[in-house]
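# nightly structure sweep
# worker-07 picked up a monomer target from the shared queue
# config: single-sequence mode, recycle default, output format = structure tokens
# input follows
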Amino acid sequence: MNPKLFAKIFACIFVDLLLSCCAVQSQPPPTPTSLPISTTQPDADVDDERFAQAHQQLVEHAIAAQNLQDEDVIRAFSTVPRHWFVPTEYLDMAYEDHPLPIGYGQTISQPSLVAHMTEILELKPGQKVLEIGTGSGYQAAILAELGFVDVYTIEIVPELAENASNLLQTLGYSNVAVKQADGYYGWEEYAPFDAIIVTAAPDHLPAPLVEQLAENGRLVIPIGPPGWYQTLWKFHKQDNELIGYNMGGVGFVPFTGEGVQSSAQDQTP
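# output follows
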């Protein structure tokens, strides 16, 4: 990795942590390499009413914690039941505001951060959004629940991609397309995208995603060294150039795959 780039990223993260002005996604507890996930379809034994109050309390917390203002995002966040997307072992923690393991070294993200990242995409009716890192399918469901965008989502882990695809279809989200692939390269077939959201952290901005971002598009991505806190960036593409906005410190699982690894090697002096 380029030493100057590393120093710049580290400096941003260090300043963010000192200021303590950012919402940090806490690290999940250890998880085995594989974990049974019972959410290929909603579990008939799970009483949705049991979680109603906890869901509402989480929504109220997220609105305050992230200063949410977009009514469509709040509605989607209030509608999608998070307990359908977590393993049965963690049902009792489904509406706590932190990430949870979903197996294969991956997590379902901190729910208030999911809502925040959705809001800063600034989505409008008829737009196309690409998600990198489907995971459980929860972020894709929030995007789809908006009801006015087409969602394309990529997951590198085959088992997670299959589980998420089955669940999203079962829930009736016909405006979501799921692909099992290395998300570093995006989804060129359906590019350009009006918005791109990345839910795993590379140590640099993937060039293919920049290329597939439409003019006036928004790209939201955590960037930073693996195993440490990263900086959440919002990029706005204007006149084929990116304008970056530092949105604070976060903690995401590392971006995996040959794409990010080979690119990092290319940048090493």
